[in-house]
From TrEMBL:
Record Gene3D superfamilies: 3.30.1180.10, degv family protein, Dihydroxyacetone kinase, domain 1
Keyword Transcription regulation recorded: no
Protein name, per record: DegV family protein
Function: May bind long-chain fatty acids, such as palmitate, and may play a role in lipid transport or fatty acid metabolism.
InterPro entries per record: DegV (IPR003797), DegV_C (IPR043168), DegV_domain_contain (IPR050270)
Keywords, in A-Z order: Lipid-binding
């Protein structure tokens, strides 16, 4: 059996220490802000997250770019040259065209190395949902699954990735066409916090609305209790867009609901997702039916 490597991209929000422990290479997405272009790596080597959100709060309007086929070719090829196959777990195709680009990039490599295998799988997930899924994928790989078996497992389980998050500022949802101008104005005046999730096609959808941050956080915990199964063994990732205090509070609420503190990771939401949700976004994600 050929050795293989699991690869993902920088929309998979996990703590950098966890990413290093998982030994998962990360393909960087890029973004531009105030005429500067950055590649976002989870270790923040090219622009730190705190500065990004500070510029966002001051009115900067960043733009993200998807990964093109040539970038994927350049990223995959060194592993194939080493004699390894590749399992790439992509950002949701419902939110980006990068999944299609990854398959084109893989084909470019396989034209040169026909004996190799590169499998690109649409995670249908994003942010901490993609991160939580990636964490479980590596756990399964370490159980000894070969590439084909793990690929099949990923495709079976990706429909059981649960994403629940709230946004603090409706402006970025309006800018992305998720809410109308009137909805954004009225919602902001009434302190309405939209609750969003990702549907079975990997697309962003508004599921509910809550009046105020506390009510929104209570909703996130309620959905975790409803969908999480045995909370005493459930693992989850809490994501925050530059609002660590709220993330810590949500973690304590999850513990109070029955989760184990050691099974809860807190991760920063990077600039790629942050561009579309703004500062103050709070999320919890977990995988069930494993």
């Amino acid at each position: 059996m050929r050795d293989y490597v699991v690869i993902s991209d920088s929309t998979a929000d996990l703590p950098i220490a966890v990413v290093k422990e998982l030994e998962v290479p990360i393909v960087p997405f890029s973004y531009s802000i105030e005429e500067q272009v950055y590649e976002y790596y989870l270790d923040e080597r090219d622009g730190d997250i705190g500065s990004f959100y500070e510029r966002l709060r001051k009115g900067a309007m960043p733009v993200t770019s998807q990964i093109n086929p040539a970038m994927y070719q350049d990223f995959f090829e060194p592993y194939v040259k080493e004699g390894k196959d590749v399992l790439y777990i992509s950002f949701s195709s419902g939110l980006s065209g990068s999944y299609q680009s990854s398959m084109l990039g893989a084909d470019m490599v396989l034209d040169k190395y026909p004996e190799a295998k590169i499998v690109c799988v649409d995670s249908r997930s994003a942010a901490v949902g993609q991160g939580a899924f990636l964490y479980e994928i590596v756990r399964k790989k370490r159980e000894g699954l070969d590439l084909d078996a793990l690929t099949e497992w990923v495709k079976q389980i990706r429909g059981h990735v649960h994403h629940w998050f709230m946004v603090e500022d409706l402006f970025h949802l309006k800018r992305g066409g998720r809410v109308s101008t009137v909805e954004a104005m009225v919602g902001s005046a009434l302190k309405i916090k939209p609750i969003l999730s990702v549907d079975e096609e990997g697309k962003l959808v508004i599921r509910s609305k809550a009046r105020g941050t506390n009510k929104a956080m209570e909703y996130l915990i309620a959905k975790t209790v409803e969908e999480g199964g045995d909370l005493s063994t459930l693992r989850a990732v809490i994501g925050h867009a530059d609002c660590i205090e709220k993330a810590e509070k949500l973690k304590q609420m999850a513990v109070d609901a029955g989760m184990q503190a050691d099974n809860l990771m807190i991760a920063p939401i990077g600039p790629i997702i942050g561009t579309h949700v703004g500062s103050g976004m709070l999320a919890i994600a977990f995988v069930t039916n494993m």
